[in-house]
Amino acid sequence: MAKLHIFKSILRLAVLACLAFNVQASWAAEVSVAVAANFSAPMQKIAQIFAQETGHTAVLSIGSTGHFYAQIKNGAPYQVLLAADDATPRMIEKDGLGIAGSRFTYAIGQLVLWSKQPGFVDGQGEILRSGKFQRIAIANPKLAPYGAAAMETVNQLGLWPTLQPKLVQGENIAQTYQFVASENAQLGFVALSQVLVDGKLSQGSAWVVPAKLHTPIQQEAILLTHGRDQPAALALMRFLRTERSQALIRAHGYGV
Predict the structure, then answer these.
(1) Are 253 and 190 in contact (CB under 8 A)?
(2) How many angstroms separate the CA atoms of 154 and 151, rounded?
(3) Could you report the per-residue pLDDT of 97-140, keeping only the tens digit for each?
(4) Which helix (H) or strand (E) segment is 85 a member of?
(5) Quick one: DSSP state of residue 118?
């Protein structure tokens, strides 16, 4: 009898586990997320934790905010946009392509002048005035907010005439980083998050550009019309505001 009782208990637990799995499987969903290139690393980690805690899957597309805006206007089925600025989500909301009132700042970006070579970039950015380099990389300022911030910085410093002949332009901040990491450009303006590991400079040398030299890089998220009433999209928008997400965002060199 005791063995029969144990068998029935095990069977009951197995049935309950199976039912729980089926309920979760039927409830779990995917959310299509357009992610600004500078936010790729933290968002990949956030997506893993999001999946573990909610059962939902965030399918990430990485690229420039400008390109995403064009794609969304042309009907791309993204449900959430994590932009590299606040202007693009405002335009999306105005165009009726995003849910009114869903916008919020998920990160405040920091621009950095970085070189893979140790000691090459000084702590005040005076390397820019020295001209002792052949190429400097920036992201396309028409498509990438970090590129626009880099152009503002160069103009504020009065260095555009001398730097213009040496500029190489990346389509987005990820490609710009690759130009510098591969040393096709000796230095370049990238996102601080791209060159930090555990809160420290991963390699090379850098100058964190003072915020006063460019418009603040306020990065906003917006729920797009394709994400309206979609459980996974709504869950992700909530999850980005949790302390766990914000701690991870801060660890990658952003303000929140």
Answers:
(1) no
(2) 5
(3) 999 999 999 999 999 999 999 999 999 999 999 989 999 999 99
(4) none
(5) T
Strand, coil or helix: 75: coil
Q: Quickly tell me which residue has 């950095």 as its tokens.
A: 112
SS3 184: coil
What whole-number distance in Å separates Cα of residue 25 and Cα of residue 191? Answer: 38
In what helix (H) or strand (E) does residue 169 lie, and over which residues does it extend? strand 167-170
pLDDT digits over 197-218, tens only?
878 899 999 999 999 999 999 9
Q: Is the dihedral of CA 122, 128, 134, 136 positive or negative?
A: positive
Beta-bridged to residue 138, according to DSSP, are 169
Three-state SS string across 187-227, please? EEEEEHHHHEECCEECCCEEEECCHHHCCCEEEEEEEEHHH
